[in-house]
Amino acid sequence: MEILGATLRICVDDLETTVPFYERLAGGPALRFERGGVQVAAVGCFLLMSGPEAELEVLRKVGATIAVEDVDEAHQVLSDSGAHVLAGPVVTPAGRNLIAMHPDGSIYEYVDRRAPE
């Protein structure tokens, strides 16, 4: 499994006032979407999230988003290596993802940019 990069996940109170700072910092516009009642802005290596506290509480448990070439391959490697897949793989607006807990208890999201088949 090749890891292509990582995205830092940041929960914020007010997405509208926070996004301009990160757009200036990253040098480009945010890609915005909504997922499960949470407003999301992806800008550079940052994933900003804002929404109901109950949803954010769950999202805060995920340490980072890790980009991989193929989520199915990541699923196999993670499972074979002792990780526990908590959710997925599922289709997202940007590709597919899964959530896995590593043997040390760390939780990460793995994503690819493959269109659904």
Can you offer a commentary on this structure?
25% of the residues lie in helices and 44% in strands. It has 117 residues and is α+β, with helices and mostly antiparallel strands. It has an 8-stranded mixed sheet. The longest helix has 12 residues, at 15-26. The mean pLDDT is 92.
Describe the structure in brief.
The chain is α+β, with helices and mostly antiparallel strands and 117 residues long. The chain contains three helices and eight strands, in the order βαβββαβαβββ.
- The proportion of residues forming helix, as a percent range, comes to 10-25%
Mean pLDDT: 92
Largest sheet: 8 strands, mixed
Secondary structure class reads alpha+beta
Overall form: globular
N-to-C terminal Cα separation, in Å? Answer: 20 Å
Secondary-structure element string: EHEEEHEHEEE
Number of helices: 3
Q: How large is the radius of gyration?
A: 14 Å
Q: How many strand segments?
A: 8
Lateral strand order in the biggest sheet: 2-3-4-1-5-8-7-6
- β-strand amount: 35-45%
- Could you list the spans in which at least 5 consecutive residues all have pLDDT below 50? none
